[in-house]
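I'll show an entry:

:::
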Amino acid sequence: MYEMKISRKRIGWEWRVSDLSGKVAAAGREISRSTARYKAAHALFQLLLKTISIRDRAELKRRQRR
């Protein structure tokens, strides 16, 4: 799974999406907090879609081998 973190920085807001081990999968910096939340949520959604897509392809390959 992944987690989102948003933190206040000197100028603006920093966001990052990381896996549970702490490895950063996506990150960025925005002026407003709402934009940072949107970008982090968008990145998280894209990562989840990619993960599901990879899992579905693996399942499809297993079924084709049978």
In short: The chain has one helix and three strands.
